[in-house]
Amino acid sequence: MTLLSSDQFPSCHVFKSCLPFLFVALLFQFQTGFSALIMSLKNHPGHPQHRRPMFQTNQSTCALFVGTWVRDDSYPLYQYSNCPIIDAEFNCQLYGRPDSDYLKYRWQPLNCVLPRFDGLVFLSKMRGKNVMFVGDSLGRNQWESLICMISASTPKMQTQIIRGDPLSTFRFLEYGLSISFYRAPYLVDIDVVQGTRILKLEGIDENGNAWRMADVLVFNTGHWWTHKGSLQGWDLIESGGKYYKDMDRLVAMEKGLRTWSNWVDTYVDRTRTRVFFQSISPTHYDPSEWGTGATATVTKNCYGETAPMTGTTYPGTYPDQMRVVDEVIREMHVPTYLLDITMLSELRKDGHPSIYSGDLSPTQRANPDRTADCSHWCLPGLPDTWNQLFYTVLFY
């Protein structure tokens, strides 16, 4: 960690469709959760974790986030051609992805059946409300997915979209429902002083003022905390009134999340607003994590992957950032539901845009080792399942 002195810088529910539990499954779930929690508490923050912790932030009789992907030819829930809101970087079918089997998978939890998403139900239950996604481009990925899913049920409804930065809003006018995306990759504020971008680990008022009136808040952060070089989103970090050129990224993330959690606990009216936090969305840039098949010898990333992993666990590493997320959320006073999509998303190595992310040149597409996007997700695609889970937790 490099410290700059101040003189070096200018001053400035229970589900209707749940199946009866099997005793063996329940015992397995308890034993796995208890042992994994103990392991999580024992691990030192600086040591990489290669196991999946069982988070205790959500109390439910249905293991929503533990299960398998099953083939279902009734999917996808909408067609890209009927949803013009999809950004080019997520619109894989439009930009030439030749396979479509990745669209035909449904998430099957271990011990219950998810209700099928119904856009009209969402509209009727959320009439007059404001739903806001806050975070990075993975939040935008999910925001666009939800709009597409609702629109598929109401193709002739009058709507309005206002795109901006940091705030974009889509309105279903007949129902008075607004679904917004607020871009805040770190959740905490970034100030620009004399051309220098300062990541303020204890500053959130500028962003937070835009979130106060939402009825449902869905937060996410993660990827930007690890970016370095040209992808790094800041020049200096401010913490405790001091400036740093860099610091341990997990430490920085935890400080930022503590600031966010304090904001939620201070300003969110728990009688009016429901708060969700989307867990870390995984990337698939290293084929050695999921196997040594033929594709691993062809590319260094997700290019060419057309099917999900089988089974219920991912053989690769589990994000260290999730330990930080879980610790922070468990200590909050305002109930915050962790949408723990990390493991089920890790199984979907086939769901990324790869080289079908926007209008890449033939030269770029011929070099997937450099240009494949194995971070975001195709639409239609995996974020639709995130929203199906969000819908389930919200209404059932």
Automatic annotation (TrEMBL):
<dbReference type="InterPro" id="IPR025846">
    <property type="entry name" value="TBL_N"/>
</dbReference>
<comment type="similarity">
    <text>Belongs to the PC-esterase family. TBL subfamily.</text>
</comment>
<dbReference type="Pfam" id="PF14416">
    <property type="entry name" value="PMR5N"/>
</dbReference>
<keyword id="KW-1133">Transmembrane helix</keyword>
<feature type="domain" description="Trichome birefringence-like C-terminal">
    <location>
        <begin position="114"/>
        <end position="392"/>
    </location>
</feature>
<dbReference type="InterPro" id="IPR029962">
    <property type="entry name" value="TBL"/>
</dbReference>
<keyword id="KW-0735">Signal-anchor</keyword>
<dbReference type="Pfam" id="PF13839">
    <property type="entry name" value="PC-Esterase"/>
</dbReference>
<dbReference type="GO" id="GO:0016413">
    <property type="term" value="F:O-acetyltransferase activity"/>
</dbReference>
<dbReference type="InterPro" id="IPR026057">
    <property type="entry name" value="TBL_C"/>
</dbReference>
<keyword id="KW-0812">Transmembrane</keyword>
<feature type="domain" description="Trichome birefringence-like N-terminal">
    <location>
        <begin position="61"/>
        <end position="112"/>
    </location>
</feature>
<dbReference type="GO" id="GO:0005794">
    <property type="term" value="C:Golgi apparatus"/>
</dbReference>
<protein>
    <recommendedName>
        <fullName>Trichome birefringence-like N-terminal domain-containing protein</fullName>
    </recommendedName>
</protein>
<keyword id="KW-0472">Membrane</keyword>
<dbReference type="GO" id="GO:0016020">
    <property type="term" value="C:membrane"/>
</dbReference>
